[in-house]
Write a structure and sequence with these properties.
alpha/beta; Spore Coat Polysaccharide Biosynthesis Protein SpsA, Chain A; 8 helices; 7 strands; globular; transmembrane helix; glycosyltransferase
């Protein structure tokens, strides 16, 4: 039975995806049954073809395809909906998130007595990005942390592990993947963090500019602040029937 599902949102990553999948298999082979779900988010290169050809020799590999590009959060959401495992891990399709970090993420959720933990969020150290991208991310994370008080230094890291049922109870919106620690905490879950390494992009280029991230980020931040203030406070307990 599959325990862990690894979801990879990918758009135009034909040059990176096979190396990433090799790394995932090497990192997770000793950790029980797992599946890998690649969500092709409207690619116009051979991303789907590379994955499809590999599926013949890797029965735990699955491919989902969006009929148009919906963005990273939509791809993650589609993957989680299709996942068989109770624990879901995510990492970016560009190879910048080292797959050998995955066991550090899902192990705390599988440990005895971990039922209160909803998400384990990776936080990058030694980021291998351009100076402008690192500065923009640092500024955005500082504003978000101040506004949401989510205790997360690097919410943009693609390496995360969380409980599937907890994720599916969260409100869906575009770019929600950047706010998962705050959203899980909103629903009463504990949030854990682990430091993870980072690599340069193997090939291709990012699908989003710093300006695009910043513009949508400010709008989303206001929306998430609203969601946190409107959270459900009442918690139900079921009464047992009286005997006699």
């Amino acid at each position: 039975m599959v325990t862990v599902s690894i979801v990879i949102p990918a758009k135009n990553e034909a040059e990176n995806i096979e190396t990433l999948l090799d790394g995932i298999d090497a990192a997770c082979a000793a950790h029980g049954d797992y599946e890998v779900i690649v969500v092709d988010d409207g690619s116009d290169d051979d991303t789907a073809g590379v994955v499809n050809r590999r599926m013949d020799s890797h029965p735990n590999l699955r491919l989902l395809r969006h009929d148009r590009s919906g963005g990273q959060s939509a791809a993650v959401h589609s993957g989680v909906l299709a996942a068989s495992g109770s624990i879901v891990c995510t990492l970016d399709g560009d190879g910048q998130n080292p797959p050998e970090e995955l066991p550090k993420l899902f192990a705390p959720l599988l440990a005895e007595g971990s039922d209160a933990i909803g998400i384990v969020a990776g936080q990058r150290v030694g980021r291998q990005d351009t100076v402008s991208k690192k500065l923009a991310s640092r500024f955005a994370n500082a504003i978000r942390s101040w506004a949401l008080k989510d205790g997360t230094r690097d919410t943009g890291c693609g390496l995360k592990a969380f409980r599937r049922d907890g994720f599916l109870r969260l409100p869906f919106f575009n770019h929600m993947h950047r706010y998962l620690p705050a959203l899980f905490a909103r629903d009463g879950w504990q949030v854990a963090h682990v430091d993870v390494s980072h690599r340069p992009r193997g090939a291709g280029r990012s699908n989003y500019s710093n300006l695009q991230r910043g513009f949508v980020g400010m709008i989303d931040l206001v929306g998430v602040m609203w969601l946190l203030r409107r959270r459900k406070l009442a918690r139900p307990t079921e009464a047992a029937a009286k005997k006699g």
